[in-house]
Amino acid sequence: MSRKKGRVLYVDDEEINLVNFRETLSDEFEIFLAGSGKEAMALLAREGEMALVVSDQRMPGMSGIELLTEVREMYPDTIRMIISAYTEIHELIEAINKAEVYRYFVKPWKEDQLRFSIGNAVGTYALGQEIKQFVEQGRKQMAERMRSLEGEKR
């Protein structure tokens, strides 16, 4: 039984980071890359919801927090992470409060920690999707049963 790879979007304005991310994780996940927040939003519009969006914090045009806040609004089930070379506390708090990030990584990332956290995030997303399907099936079955009972009363 083959397991579907989780879809992960990584956004960073530095090409070397995009290459390293893809090389590190493409065996385990379906990796999408974008060089800016604007490019990421266009990619999401084209490709649809991702299990996880990981973004650099400081990028020209749109910060990682701004991007992940938009992602949260458009795709609330998508898990969000920030990777940054900077550790200012106000950015960390803003990432948690506005973008509701799952994890904040400091560059350079440690490969084993990154791989583990991304695996957990993708697993959390997949579990959430399964629960949503299960609840929806339950609703449909309940509605069918109610219609059936209404028919029996008549």
From TrEMBL:
This is Response regulator. It comes from the Bacteria. CDD domains: REC_HupR-like. PROSITE patterns: RESPONSE_REGULATORY. One of its GO terms (biological process) is phosphorelay signal transduction system. Residues 7-122 form the Response regulatory domain. The modification 4-aspartylphosphate is found at residue 56. The lineage of its organism: Bacteria, Pseudomonadati, Thermodesulfobacteriota, Desulfobulbia, Desulfobulbales. Keywords: Phosphoprotein. It holds the Pfam family Response_reg. Signal peptide: none annotated. Transmembrane segments: none annotated.
